[in-house]
Design brief:
466 residues, alpha/beta, Udp-n-acetylmuramoylalanyl-d-glutamate--2,6- Diaminopimelate Ligase, Chain: A, domain 1, UDP-N-acetylmuramoyl-L-alanine:D-glutamate ligase, Protein-Tyrosine Phosphatase, Chain A, 3 domains, 21% strand, globular
């Protein structure tokens, strides 16, 4: 971010200054363990922790001032408490919006969708790194706090800002767009994720479309031509529209897909009259669509298709627990996709697992998908049928939400078991897993299924040493 005096910062966020107004702030953090010299420490009051208590630690670590809702003994800017969103988070949003206003001749890419947005964000960031300095943090800093911090902590020479935008209801993406003022908007798909929050898939499409509506006449909307709800958003775009997908009408068109036995792929991308071959290292056919979306962003910023193809060849998995591949002793493979899940991403993950069938015995270790509302029982019941349709040999279901999938799996001939909790599943898998097996772990974030993946990996490696 651009350097600000504490006095200037107080004016921007509408706070009261206590201490030396000439102090220079050069960055922002809300984590007292991640302070860099020159940082402003945002003291957020959580359900269990009041970060004001850590202000002395933050200052000792190099922070120069505190942004909070009560005065502390260190230099600080104090803002009044507010109902709803934490007042410090709101203030950081104002600060990020001001920072965005200081930026010119930059590309600000907003990325949303029901599934795949984090991976797409990661791929876009790696492609655009070949175009110039790019800010695209790992993980999912996609909410009212994470997005402002991404903007505020970018280097001053950043040319491309890649910002994931999540939603839990109407107005959330619009709010993030007010802060970020995107020049390019990417919508990957519309699915059932968060349907329990907004009531219907049609409402999800409306909420996601807020990104397209926020783009100005100079903006570029990048839309999935294979998803009719996303394609319909083209009518909301004030500026240029670029589409991607397998459809004949797509501007950046996918063809000639070949899936390898290890889940990687080759395919071609065509734009205008040019076609390039892509050798793509990420797992899963669903990631081909994410790669095409990223290619469309590259085209939008002026990269050649040849340069984009070279960048895609070098892409790696950047964020934790998203199709994260681990090769263990005895040829056992773990695919840790435990960061999140919804019906669409679950189908994609099981399809990817099926690419190993024939040469390996396959396991799907699945826990609940959240925020599905009235669709929850139906979608969890379908897990057994999905496993059977993809030739999965072992299905391990965990938690009350997944119980409806057990009967369907057994009726379809899948070797399926259900456990109420992770620890019981860990013992079962540890005893049954064999050499060359491939295990997929997938669930919604709050299930914490990455813990089970870690336990199983530890069991396998300890067993190999005995």
């Amino acid at each position: 971010m651009h350097n600000l005096t504490l006095r200037e910062l107080a004016d921007i966020v509408g706070g009261e200054l206590f201490g030396d107004g000439d102090i220079i702030v050069s960055g922002v953090t809300t984590d007292s363990h991640a302070v860099r010299a020159g940082d402003l420490f945002g003291a957020i009051v959580g359900e269990r922790v009041d970060a004001h208590d850590f202000a002395p630690d933050a200052i000792a670590a190099g922070a120069v001032a505190v942004l909070g809702t009560r005065q502390v003994s260190q230099p600080c800017v104090v803002i009044p408490r507010s109902a709803g969103l934490d007042a410090v988070i709101v203030a950081l949003g104002r600060l990020a919006q001001h920072e965005r206003g200081q930026l010119s001749n930059v590309n600000v890419i907003g990325v949303t969708g029901s599934s795949g947005k984090t991976t797409t964000k990661d791929i876009i960031g790696q492609v655009l790194a070949h175009n110039g300095p790019t800010q695209s943090p790992a993980g999912s800093p996609n909410n009212e706090l994470g997005l402002p911090l991404t903007l505020l902590n970018a280097a001053q020479d950043t040319k491309n800002y890649v910002l994931e935008m999540g939603m839990r209801g109407f107005g959330h993406i619009a709010y993030l767009c007010e802060i970020a003022q995107p020049t390019i908007g990417v919508v990957t798909n519309v699915g059932l994720a968060h349907v329990g929050e907004v009531g219907s898939i049609e409402n999800i499409a409306v909420a996601k479309s807020e990104l397209v509506s926020a783009l100005g006449t100079d903006g570029v909307a990048i839309l999935n031509a294979d998803d009719h709800r996303v394609l319909a958003m083209s009518g909301l775009a004030a500026g240029k529209v670029l589409t991607f997908g397998k459809s004949e009408i797509a501007d950046i068109r996918i063809a000639d897909i070949h899936m390898r036995n290890d889940g990687t792929s080759t395919f071609t991308l065509t734009y205008l009259s040019e076609t390039v071959s892509i050798d793509f290292p990420l797992l899963g056919e669903h990631n081909i669509s994410n790669a095409a979306a990223s290619a469309a962003v590259g085209v939008a910023v002026g990269m050649s298709l040849e340069a984009i193809a070279g960048a895609l060849l070098q892409v790696t998995s950047k964020s934790k627990w998203r199709m994260e591949l681990h090769r263990l002793s005895r040829g056992i493979i773990i695919i840790n996709d435990a960061y999140n899940a919804n019906p669409e991403s679950m189908r994609a993950a099981l399809t990817t697992l099926s690419s190993y069938a024939g040469q390996h015995s396959t396991w799907a270790v699945l826990a609940g998908m959240h925020e599905l509302g009235d669709a929850s029982e139906r979608e969890h019941a379908s897990l057994g049928e999905l496993a059977a349709a993809n030739g999965i040999e072992h299905l391990v279901l965990i938690g009350e939400l997944t119980r409806p999938g057990l009967e369907a799996a057994l009726n379809a001939g899948v070797q399926a078991v259900w456990f109420p909790e992770i620890n019981q599943a860990s013992d079962y898998i540890g005893q049954k897993v064999a050499a060359d097996d491939v295990l997929l772990f997938k669930a919604s974030r709050s299930e914490g299924l990455e813990r089970l993946a870690a336990q199983v990996m530890d069991q396998i490696e300890r067993g190999a040493q005995q």
